[in-house]
Amino acid sequence: MNKYLTENKSIVLTGDRITGPLHLGHYIGSLQQRVEFQNKATQYILMADMQGLTDNGSTPEKGQ
Fold it and tell me: 54: which residues sit within 8 A by CB, 6+ positions away?
């Protein structure tokens, strides 16, 4: 952890709900910004798979 603190990089925490396949909206909404930050910040990305499964309880294959 000390390595990250001494590099003077920002730390970014973000996440996604897994609700189906990637599409253009994902790219415009968040993926493009993550690519821009990849060399400027340390990024931690959370995948909210439980929320994706509960939101799609009637169609669980959508969350795979």
Answer: none
